[in-house]
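Researcher: Please generate the 3D structure of the following complex. Treat every line as part of one assembly.
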Amino acid sequence: MKCKRCAAKATVQLRSHNTAFCKECFVFFFQRNVERSIERERMFTREEPVLVAVSGGKDSLALWDTLVTLGYRTEGLYLGLGIGAYSAASQRKAEAYAAARDLPLRIMRLEEEGDGLAIPEAAFFTRRQPCAACGTFKRHHFDRAALDGGFAVLATGHNLDDEAARLLGNVLHWQLPYLAKQHPVLTPTHPKFVRKVRPLYRTSEYESATYAFLRGIDYVVEECPNSHGATQLVYKDLLNRLEETMPGSKLAFVSDFLRHAHPLFAGAPDSPAGECARCGMPAFAELCGYCRLVAEIERRRSQAVAHS
Amino acid sequence: MHVRLEPQGRQLTIAGRRRVGDLVRSLGLVTGTVMVIRGDDLLTDDDMVEDDEAIELRAVISGGAR
Ligand code: SF4
Ligand SMILES: [Zn+2]
Ligand SMILES: [Zn+2]
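Model: Done. Output below.
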């Protein structure tokens, strides 16, 4: 197999694009695709400061690496979730990546932030899936850090497979409000929110892993222990089987949705009317979703102590 | 050949010389969900792996409600 760009021996085969590349040409192809996504969707300019949520995994490190190479103004943010060995390993990878390239990285750890609650306790006391609390915690701390740091934009490493799996889930259950919000650029609905963007939304998981590998990025290969049995993985598996027989399906699913269907679902976004009485972030009720969750955990924790 | 599956950390020994695409499918894996790594190189479906070589099949799929 030969590189479509320079005819050297190919090391990366992309069935979805019906093409193959050598190492150098693949790196170029990947970076150019990300740059095109940023420009096509007007995600941010080279002047705007971008906060990149870095988990230590392949996607967020590939994203950060690409943005730095393309000359964007970035800073990394690592949020430690307190999930045992997995969190320890991912923090080490994120720190090592930043240190080796002399890039600015902020470290926040849930155990050390205001409420001192990490994911395992949150899941234990709410008796719900850890991922539910995890999503709320991440959103709150990312929003807060972007606001406090004066960033214009928050970028995350969600890739094409994430977007396609989310879209499948939203379509299977006809989640109209979620379909309205499924977009690679979310414009702020409150002055205290920043723009949220997903520059890898057209880039498959295979491509970001390949990019990270070929760029010598040492990322965390282990998975979060809570991801086992996650519904999202069932959707990803289905989509990958479809992709195997019909290459390009995932990209068509997501990009055709954005082009033809998203405008039909997107009404006026509902904006939080006020600010949270406890933390001051935008809120639909007296307390924001994060503070309501923290209050629930604290209530159940004190009940548990009272019964023991 | 020696095959290591990551992130599971499983090791397999397979006899003979194999085409990468056939090897991946014979292990029940879906193409495009694993990187096939030999040393510092990635292999494509039509590359051959010799009996005395070692490769890693590294899953690229991550999950959870992100
Ligand atoms: S799998 Fe769930 S708990 Fe683990 S990082 Fe992802 S969302 Fe959080
Ligand atoms: Zn080339
Ligand atoms: Zn609050």
